[in-house]
Each structure stands twice: as C-alpha cells, then as structure tokens.
Amino acid sequence: MSSYKKAYIAGGCFWGMEDLFRSRPGIKDTEVGYQGGENDNPTYQNHPGHAEGIELTYDPNETSFKEILDYFFRMHNPTTVDQQGNDKGSSYRSAIFYQNEEEKAQAEEVIDIVNNSGKWESKVVTTLEPFAPFWQAEENHQDYLVKNPNGYTCHYLRFEDSYLKTEV
C-alpha cells in the first residue's frame, strides 16, 4: 500500500462521482468530503467555499493520474460553472486539487486535450486549485449510492472513448 497515491477532484455531488470511480481499474479506495473552503471541520450543513470532492486512493502501476482525469472529464460536465445537474453553487464546482507541479502540468495537458476534442460546445471551466486539506464527509455520505441504490446522481459516463487515446 505504500506505493499507492491519492488524487483529489470535485465535479458536483460527491455521491455519483464516488459510485462511478469505485469500480475503475486501479482505484483502491474512495472517500467523499469537503475541500478548498473557508472553515476547518466542515459539515454538510456548514462548508462555506468547500467543494464536494472525492479522495481517490490509486495504484499508479494500474492507472495514472492522467487516466483518472480522463475518466473525470467523461463522467461530469466540466463546462458549467458551479453546477452539475440540478445542483448549483460553489460546492458543486468542477475542480482538480493538485498536490505538486507535475499534477498541475498533467491537469493542464488533459484540459487542453478535452478542449481540443470538440466533444463539448463550451470550454472547460474546471479550476486548478493547490491542494487544501481534505475533510472527510459524514458517514451517511460515504458509499451513499451503495446504501441508497435509488438515490440521486447527476453523474454518468457521457463519452465512452478516452480523450487520451494514445497520449497516456
């Protein structure tokens, strides 16, 4: 497990993102939570400025940060500011919380690929934000769609084909 890495992303309600990522090759664990906001120990009722995000633990021998971002950009709409589906507000922004300059550069590269793909009518508005503490959400939010299979989600695979093709 010491060779595992973590990635931090936000793309709308964290329930649907977690549900889709949990079955991806190389993803070893998922946690939903709050990131990039104004207060410590945020809660669902009090998380000003925080995005609903996800912490992905992954094996870099099985998947890459760029492959994670490729899937991320195919399972939510990265062209809407502070909105996914019916959810509106900065909590639902599309964001990548990069941990180092290499991740930032890879995120910029993937965003360019997505923008140049022509798959979206508008340009990507996903923010690149320096890593900020990730605060785990309450237990009732963890694995929400496993516990509540008919629960709300606005996430689904919008494009089958990878943006990356042979670029990985």
Automatic annotation (TrEMBL):
It is an enzyme of class 1 (oxidoreductase). Its EC number is 1.8.4.11. Belongs to the MsrA Met sulfoxide reductase family. It comes from the Bacteria. It comes from Psychroserpens luteus. The active site is at 13. Keywords: Oxidoreductase. It catalyses: [thioredoxin]-disulfide + L-methionine + H2O = L-methionine (S)-S-oxide + [thioredoxin]-dithiol; L-methionyl-[protein] + [thioredoxin]-disulfide + H2O = L-methionyl-(S)-S-oxide-[protein] + [thioredoxin]-dithiol. One of its GO terms (molecular function) is peptide-methionine (S)-S-oxide reductase activity. Residues 6-154 form the Peptide methionine sulphoxide reductase MsrA domain. Has an important function as a repair enzyme for proteins that have been inactivated by oxidation. Catalyzes the reversible oxidation-reduction of methionine sulfoxide in proteins to methionine. InterPro entries: Met_Sox_Rdtase_MsrA_dom (IPR002569), Met_Sox_Rdtase_MsrA_sf (IPR036509). This is Peptide methionine sulfoxide reductase MsrA. PANTHER family: PEPTIDE METHIONINE SULFOXIDE REDUCTASE (PTHR43774), PEPTIDE METHIONINE SULFOXIDE REDUCTASE MSRA 2 (PTHR43774:SF1).
